[in-house]
Amino acid sequence: MVTIKQTQLIEWLKNITLVIRENKDILTALDSEIGDADHGFNMERGFNKVSEKIDELSRSQDIAMLMKNTGMTLISSIGGASGPLYGTFFMQAGAVLGDKTEITLTDLKNSIENGVKGVKDRGRASVGDKTMIDVLEPAVQSLSESVGENLSLEQALSNMVDVAKNGMKSTIDMIAKKGRASYLGERSIGHQDAGATSSYLILKALKETIN
Ligand code: ADP
Ligand code: MG
Ligand code: MG
User: Which parts of the sequence belong to the DhaL domain (predicted)?
Assistant: First the structure.
């Protein structure tokens, strides 16, 4: 059985930092259209902190602690709506993993599912509200289907990212119902959501780290 090792998840965190830095201006530009132009800055600040603390994070005894410590780092360093939401995602993603130091596709699905549940409990957004949930929820759905169909880890990650990309693009035509963009009502139509975009980048970084 192919598994994901704790060291690979540490590589994922490093790769998220790189991809966020590369896309900082894009994330900020998207947030400037229907928000307050700080999403790139917020995400970079949070993941710079993760990257500064990566040696300490790497000493986490298991994947649950690694994810929890990452989430706490994000909560304490990202301002704005996205900090507590991504922080909750990582903390809750860890919460279902017990003391594992490597995980199967099923574990990964359970982990991301619980992370997304945490984001939904906290932010109360549903699919269609033009937020990161439009990427995260279909990604969980895709992972569940892949588990059900016994797909390989590689294929499952690839399918998840395809679905996440569609979710990201689907936000363009939506009216924002949550977050700052919701103040614009119909004027939010025609713009891709910044948080959906960062969620896509985070999931894509996972696929590229593992596959
Ligand atoms: P802020 O809006 O406080 O400036 P950011 O710009 O960092 O924070 O993040 C904005 C992103 O957060 C949005 O693009 C959206 O995807 C996400 N978001 C905002 N509110 C919610 C919510 N209630 N649930 C899920 N995601 C949300
Ligand atoms: Mg913002
Ligand atoms: Mg802000």
Answer: 7-208
Say if the ipTM goes beyond 0.90. Answer: yes
- Reported pTM: 0.98
pLDDT digits (tens, 9 = 90+) for 167-186: 999 999 999 999 999 999 99
Distances (CA, A) of 111 to 42, 53, 75, 171, 198: 24, 22, 19, 24, 19
CB 86 within 8 A of CB 46: yes
Residue whose CA is at the smallest distance from ligand 1 atom 27: 131
Which of these CATH numbers, 1.10.260.40, 1.20.1050.10, 1.10.10.10, 1.25.40.340, describes 4-210?
A: 1.25.40.340
Distance CA 100, CA 1 (A): 15
Domain boundaries, the chain: 4-210
pLDDT at residue 207 tops 90:
yes
**Ligand 2 center to 111 CA (angstroms):** 27
CA distance 125 to 36: 19
In the predicted structure, residue 79 carries a pLDDT above the cut 90: no
Atom of ligand 1 at shortest distance to CA of 199?
A: 16
* % the chain with pLDDT above 70: 100
